[in-house]
Amino acid sequence: MNRLDVIQALMTQKGLKNYLEIGVENGHIFFRIKSRFKVAVDPKFIFDASRRFGKALLNPYNLTNQYFEKTSDDFFAQNAQQVFADKKLQLALIDGMHEYQFALRDVENTLQYMEDDGVIIMHDCNPQTPGAAGRFEDWETGEWNGDVWRTIIHLRSQRSDLTVFVLDCDQGLGIVTRKKATTPAALPDEAVALTPDQIQNLTYNDLKANRRAWLNLRSETYFYDYFGLKP
């Protein structure tokens, strides 16, 4: 299972449509989504107008795409209120700057414009090595997931109004909803109660020792159970 599988399952079986993607890059996920209301945000798109045209021929839903080549912070400050004035979000993929505070702002800003039954998907939440799990300034070579994992811990510690878990696939897919878990598979949830300062000072070894509890790590099948979907 990967993030595209999750998005498509939610769209086809739950009827979620209005879509935001933060961190679009070359559009390998974005252009494949079938929604008449799609918003792309990235500081630098790795595609040009001819690629947009070609993708519209392959998927006519791309004809109505809205593109914002800017940081997500600037998008929310300058454009979001107008973009979502008449149509709230139902589904969002957050795959932008993979650092704690950036990802946290993206989630909290997105929630402001999301319907109550909307879903946020976060990529890169379950790094497997110390090098992959750090801040960008410390990254040297190899895979880099960043410290989005801290964002998951923060949300689970500070936002009791949300249900947050991470699917153990595609480098960790964080799922954020306002829905309260009611299925037997969702219980028990191990509570997390860390302050932002404590979270900021966590090490990879701390994560490794508490990975399943802190991330609320779940198998792929839990996704279908939680949303009541068919595999």
Q: Shape from CA axes?
A: globular
User: Mean pLDDT, rounded to whole units?
Assistant: 93
Task: Give a count of the beta strands, DSSP E runs of length 2 or more.
Answer: 8
- Assign a percent range to the helix content: 25-40%
The gyration radius over C-alpha positions equals 17 Å
**Main pleated-sheet profile:** 8 strands, mixed
What is the string of helix and strand elements?
A: HEEHEHHEHEHEEHHEH
Given the structure, what is the number of helices?
9
The largest sheet has its strands arranged as 3-2-1-4-5-7-6-8
What structural category arises from helix and sheet content? alpha/beta
User: Which blocks of ≥5 consecutive residues have pLDDT under 50?
Assistant: none
Assembly annotation: single chain
Task: Summarize this structure briefly.
The chain is built from nine helices and eight strands. By secondary structure, it is an alpha/beta fold.
Structure explained in plain terms:
- The protein is of the alpha/beta class.
- The chain has 9 helices and 8 strands.
- The protein has helices at 3-14, 49-58, 72-78, 80-83, 100-112, 148-158, 196-200, 204-215, 220-227, and strands at residues 19-22, 38-41, 66-68, 89-94, 114-122, 163-167, 173-177, 217-218.
- An 8-stranded mixed beta sheet has the order 3-2-1-4-5-7-6-8, with helices on both faces.
- Helix 2 (49-58) links the parallel strand 2 and strand 3 (66-68).
- Helix 5 (100-112) crosses helix 6.
- The radius of gyration is 17 Å and the shape is globular.
